[in-house]
Every structure is written in C-alpha cells, then in structure tokens.
Amino acid sequence: MISLFFPIVLFTKFEYLSIYLLIILIINLNSVFKFSSYQKNILKVYITFGFLKRYFFDIRNERNINSLNSDIFWDLQLFFLQLKCNLIEDFSYNFQFSNNLYNCLTGGPGHDGQINIGFGPLSKVMIFNTDIWIVTLIISIVLGLLVLSFVTKFKLENNLFSLFLVISPSFIFLFDTMNLDLVIFIISCLFIYCFKNWNLIFLIILSFFSMLKLYPIAFIVGITLFNFLNRNYKQSLISSVFLLGNGFYILYNYIFNEFSLTEKPYAPVRTFGITSDYLAINKYFGYEFFQINHVIAIFLMFFLFIGILVFNKESVLKPNITNTFDKKVFIICSPTAIVIALFANYSYKLIFFFLIASILEKTLSKSEKTIIYYLFFTSPLILIFGISGGYSFIEFLHFISNRLCGYYFLFLIFKNLYFIFKQFTGDDIYSL
Quick one: pLDDT at residue 218? Predict the structure, then answer.
C-alpha cells in the first residue's frame, strides 16, 4: 500500500499527504508493515525526492505554498531585512517570489510602519550587509541537506511515525518559513544525540538564541533540571548561572526596553497554544458564528475523548518512559514544549514536540497513539483548509478535535514529569 500510493500522493497530491500519512499510521497499529532493505531505501528515496520536488518546482509554481503573500523562506528573509534596517535606515527589499516591496521605515504587506519582526533585543543590535536572498538560499540548502541526511540515515525498523514527522504539516510549514526555530531545533538535536558532552557550548548557543527568542531559555531550564535530578550538582550550578543570567537579561529588556516576551497569533489553521486557541475561538470564529451545532459538537467530541480515556484507564495512569536516555531527552525538552503549549505560537513550533512524541509513542496504547497521530498530521490545518482557513462547521470540528488531542499530549508530558519527580526520591536511575 505504501509502495503503491505513497509516491502518487507525495508527487501529485501533496495537499492530501498529511491525511494519507495519518491513515497509514492508523492502519499500521493493527498490521505492522514489514519492510525489506530495498523497501526501506526506496521509501527514503521517495521522501527525499518529494522534498526536493516541493522546493525546486512546486513552490516556484506557487503550488501548496503556505504563505499569505506567496513568499518562500519569508521569516529568514524578514530576519535579515531587520538586521539590514539596523544598518541602513531607509533600505528597501523585494521578497522572493512575490516581489512584494518592503521598506525599513514604511513596512510592506502585513507589516505597517517601521519594520519590527518582534524578536528579542539582540535583533535590534545585530547588522547584516550582504545579499539577503543569496544568504537565505545558502542557509536553506545547508539545513535542507541536514534534514535529508537524517532521512537517509534513519533506522526505519517499525518506527514509521518518527520518519513521517519529517514530512508532517508542521515541519513543512516551518521549512517553508525558514524560521530560526529550525536552526534551534537542529542544533538541539545535534547536542542531545551527537555532541552529548558539549554542555557549555550548547548553553552559550542557547543564551545567544534566547536574546532573539524567548523559549530557548526553557531548554536551559530542562538542562538544569536534568543535571539536578541526575545529582550532577556541578553541571547544575553552571546551567543555573546561565539560566539566571538569561532570565535577568530578558526581564530587564521586558521592563525597561519594552520588548514583548511573546507574540499572539491566533488564526486557527496555522497557530497552536492555549492563548492562541482562546483568541481563535473568541476573535476568529467569534460568537456571531457560534451556533447550537457548534456547542453540540464540542460536547460530543469531549465525551468521545473521555470515553477513549476511560477505555484505556490502566495505561493512562502509568508512566510511559522506561529507557534511561529517553528520560534525559524528555526532561531536557519538556519545559520548552510546555512553554510553547501555554502561549500563542505558529504551529511550526510543534517540531519541539517531536522528540517527546517519538519517545512516548513507543509505549502508548493504540487509542493514545491515534490521538498523537491526529495531532501531528492535522497541525497546522493549512494543507487541508488553505492558508486563511474559513468558518465552516467541518473546519470547526477539525479545530476542536485537534486541540483536544493537543491538550492530551500536554497531559502526557505533565504525567510523566510527575512520575520522574516521584522516582527522584529513590535510586539514582538517571545516571547515563
């Protein structure tokens, strides 16, 4: 089934890819696909060429583009434009591929007035004096090669979920934007899996990014927490110094330099987080669009969800992580996931849930796995309903069911943190 239909959907019906992957994963729960060496390699080839086709051909022809302004890699272009504006006050730039004109003083589509990307204080100090598009392309190619190297080296076995995350809607959305989040995510993965003893260097890198974004400080919280639970008090003290220093710097700029700690996007098809969801229901759907069938749908979805949990009550109340290294990854990544889930964020930040999801998926029940699959392969809803979305009842159902899955994933994080803290009073099970 995968060999036959996967390349057809991937190469000709990309907008249906996430639904197809979701169906494959659910089917795989009851009949695990057995892959020969040849089939494993051909699946990786399909993903690699599908990835290349999207960015070399589809985007240029504006097919399935995840941008309001028909741009590509727009966040990275906008970041470099901000740095250029720090150097040349009245600089103007045409975005690729839309050719929309942006000026440092007057702004452009979606940015009225002076260019301000909403990053941290360092974004107002750094300067950039090179061609924006050329550097954007170079960085995008390097990051793309790193992603494809992961695909080619991935040990498939029966772990389809982790491999499919590379072509999930949130990852594709992130790669389309080429937001700095992708750089932070890749660096975090390299530190956790490849350069395990480079703690100090990683803390310095995270400190740099925390001056541009808020959430990297949550990684420092995770590292500090892991060192403390592992009874490595020397490393815990070092990471605590970085945590306090970064916390003070962020708080100082928030109070005295009027830098906002977080943005507040709320479009249901492309955002995630409790704050985003509240704003989406309150402002986007709005009470004027709320009908009795919406209320009935919410109650039905809620009770269906409760029924699934009651049916799996034995697994719901048990810890899901037993492997020692998995515990390390979970502890380091959990604070970041919690911060992202609590505030308002674009859905491409779901990539910071990927490592946790891959760990939890190993031991979850079939119902719980289905919940996780639905979360990651319908977030964001852009590929299904378009970049702007709408107000249809079907879209509302997807939105509510997707968010319930997201909150259950958040419950899984808190539940497993509880068990880890509970075990901390016993033997030193965290030594690596």
Answer: 92
